[in-house]
Amino acid sequence: MGDISNMSNGLSSNGNGNGNNATMGVQRKSCWYEEEIEENLRWCFALKSILHTGASQYQDIQLLDTKPFGKALVIDGKLQSAEIDEFIYHESLVHPALLNHPNPKTIFIMGGGEGSTAREILRHWAVEKVIMCDIDEEVVDFCKSHLVVNKDAFFDPRLELVINDARAELERREEVYDVIIGDLADPIEGGPCYQLYTKSFYEFIVKPKLNQGGIFVTQMLYLIQLISLPMLTLGDGSCADELDLRIKQRIEGENRYLDGKTFSSSSTLSKAVRKSLDNETHVYTEGNARFIYGHGKQH
Amino acid sequence: MGDISNMSNGLSSNGNGNGNNATMGVQRKSCWYEEEIEENLRWCFALKSILHTGASQYQDIQLLDTKPFGKALVIDGKLQSAEIDEFIYHESLVHPALLNHPNPKTIFIMGGGEGSTAREILRHWAVEKVIMCDIDEEVVDFCKSHLVVNKDAFFDPRLELVINDARAELERREEVYDVIIGDLADPIEGGPCYQLYTKSFYEFIVKPKLNQGGIFVTQMLYLIQLISLPMLTLGDGSCADELDLRIKQRIEGENRYLDGKTFSSSSTLSKAVRKSLDNETHVYTEGNARFIYGHGKQH
Amino acid sequence: MGDISNMSNGLSSNGNGNGNNATMGVQRKSCWYEEEIEENLRWCFALKSILHTGASQYQDIQLLDTKPFGKALVIDGKLQSAEIDEFIYHESLVHPALLNHPNPKTIFIMGGGEGSTAREILRHWAVEKVIMCDIDEEVVDFCKSHLVVNKDAFFDPRLELVINDARAELERREEVYDVIIGDLADPIEGGPCYQLYTKSFYEFIVKPKLNQGGIFVTQMLYLIQLISLPMLTLGDGSCADELDLRIKQRIEGENRYLDGKTFSSSSTLSKAVRKSLDNETHVYTEGNARFIYGHGKQH
Amino acid sequence: MGDISNMSNGLSSNGNGNGNNATMGVQRKSCWYEEEIEENLRWCFALKSILHTGASQYQDIQLLDTKPFGKALVIDGKLQSAEIDEFIYHESLVHPALLNHPNPKTIFIMGGGEGSTAREILRHWAVEKVIMCDIDEEVVDFCKSHLVVNKDAFFDPRLELVINDARAELERREEVYDVIIGDLADPIEGGPCYQLYTKSFYEFIVKPKLNQGGIFVTQMLYLIQLISLPMLTLGDGSCADELDLRIKQRIEGENRYLDGKTFSSSSTLSKAVRKSLDNETHVYTEGNARFIYGHGKQH
Fold this sequence. Notes:
five-stranded antiparallel sheet, alpha/beta, transferase (chains A, B, C, D), homotetramer, Spermidine_synt_N_sf (chains A, B, C, D), Rossmann fold, Spermi_synthase (chains A, B, C, D), five-stranded parallel sheet, Spermidine Synthase, Chain: A, domain 2, polyamine biosynthesis (chains A, B, C, D)
């Protein structure tokens, strides 16, 4: 590359000054992870190293070590979670649902191959059995080896790990569950997950597999209001102390993010978001799926 | 940038075409605004155009037209506000303070040259006089010409615009105010604002200029707890209906972001943030200032 | 971008300051033009302003004011030329061909809407008539208004500007030319130009429109050897003085880049490139076009 | 990161179209090496992996595996060489100097820790002894382990590897050399090399260590004309056949880049560069060093 290095004659003279520390830092940040969140919007994280790059049958997978957020899991070009703050997402996904149930013994996780959802579930004394069903063995395998914080969860005897399509696995099994949790990648075109976000899936596959009083929870942007799934009732604004009590009684160790006040606050949406939801009429079906920006492997 | 969750609802539908529009779009997004939020973290917005680039005596200024967020004001390389969601920040800065005061007639804005803070203040029927004191005439002038949404505010007879250092202006004036609002750029090294974030400034300059029962509010990341400024009491969790009532009675037009529930939710911090604040012992003084990542013009 | 080695001589001297100017500069470079040259390779230029963004029927067009290279013309997301060094490309495209012809009176330019090729041609005393045929009136119009350096050329009475497809125009016209110059955008998929790079086009459309002893020249990466177009003979390594003489006698003003030695050097390829060309067997036809990385508007 | 992933509601619907291959590719290129060549100019290469990141006493070092150029060595944030084309730089640095000497037996390399310069030197049958003196053991060590193509050179018995400052080593040794080669990083501020580009170093340290008829060569942007170092005479334009003959007789194996024509062409500068050099009056000394854009570790 010597020839190309010679391309530029741009010499700069700094005399005998100082003050260059900041500039040096700027020079040295040469490796970056870059994601297009939307078509016209990117974020970029400085990289320490690329721990793993691979492609399973279903997805492209990367495990990166980023400077601002620690280890980060990227699937099909979309950041899934990062070491520094994944506890926020996983505590919020798991604990409200389980604490809203009087005695959650059996849990089915759709996806969740990273292991963090299982980790939070297994902190509940009541839990006796967790089925974690992820389609992608490669994701599961290298999360198992790289994510130290989830190691105990992967080896907990209450956890049963199944490699299969979550829909097929739910249909195949005859037992029902106290809580079913959808911990899935976002619905992107060509990705393996978008069919697990539809009305018919929730109504005809998920609901019949719930026990009496069972609870289904998933991360999603738009609520589907037209099916009568059990909805959380804890978050009505007066329950903060009750939630704190249940957290203390039923969960091993201490939450970092979620307590009564946090739940109350984070489940109270702003006026602008409430208005946007009130105006939402779209029901997500196989035929009219809207996709998050991005593309998966399957076409 | 406030509540980002609602920032973009930009759905794109490609119907049953050959899908190349998206691909072409990717090729064509050639102009970008890029900001280093921290040393290892950037965000990038696709640009429509660069409306204005200038340097005043105090600051570097840019007015950009961005694809994802509309017109955006950038000072000293830091995004200050964007057309699409500035209402979130400005409603949150202005209304809780004014609504917490029984009869806010006289208001002093430190900074606020963009005009949006004045706009929100002037929606209050009670307000009789607003002093807006910004150090940078160039920022004020081109916001006046470019930001259509603030035009009425700039020409409201209740507004008195002063070009001066806010500290010097407060000292110079003899009158006192019902509400003083700090709408300042972040404290970056070499920028004009960091001395307006210190304990001594609040104690010896701001506080004496407040009326009996007067309220001071500013945007900041860390609260300074060691001085006895009047603190907001509205946000105690039971006031949501009362706040909605006052909004209806005292503010012209309708808020887009802030109502009782929103305030209750956004003023209830998560466990992780509360813990971090509990552990914070740093008191911001001239001698030990911590700076937001970035650099201003003055060294 | 031609001979990049001379592109920038931008020395910066910081004298004995505290060295923060450089750091500040880093903070302030917030607007960038970014181009993917290949799938895995980008270059980025800091932007002063976006002078024009438009889309004609055929192409997406941008005129940018860049910090390192001055005004730059971008078509379909690909940099076409930049103020600071366009003379290298245009002197190299025009003068060897015209100087190799004993008396070039009539010239046909396919494309060339930017005006720089016409400018160089019109410096030849011998030239009596130039047809410049570009498909895109919008490109021509705003280059005419923005590119001061080509203004005289656009208003030279010897220039006849035609807005049409170059192929159709050549076929339509009955006269023949001393020199035909292809000054076209690269062959990208969906762009308007790739059919002007094929064997059959050169053989059946271009060649019949050349006078006895006429010369055809175009910018291209791979020579097409299978058709018997007149090839340049000036560059055989012993002609440097003869070329300098003809430049002096036949061209008005002074070249900035091209003289005898420069032509001798730049027309002598390196061993690696010669070997690669020796091994090239691909003949460019409508049916087997290879495209430069990128995408045009037409699909 | 689940919370942040939920930031955007930007759903895109592609219906049942196709044409997404290109878009997918775009999505997946998430890791990049980025270098600021000058203050307003960057290039970016997609990354396969980060093979090594380290900091020696003298320099920051990275060995990257890039998609467009293969393995690339980066020192102090500046690309030094890349697998795909380093042969161009190293053949050009070594062979003209050695072939211009009647019988080059002893060679001293200042720097060259990558090993490629030694590799090219050791292809000369005449060479009996090569001293390679690099200041940075860490660079040498990991190039030895990672750069397979230089393995034989590192273990050639004619090579003596010394870890020391090249200036100190030259002064310390009493023997003189047939050829001295400067294969150094560019002179950047705070880097270890800029004092090896000065007039006094060439005159008082290098020149006395050359045999009668000895040759000194280094990569540089500006020639220093004021000292009477032996200059190459091979490149006078008529020597191409002679050079080809010497290459055949004196070098083992075949060059990929350099032959007589290539040398003749690449040593004939363009008019613009010649003019720029004619106007150059700066003599590089310790006191008035101009630096390439960038910063090293030492301040």
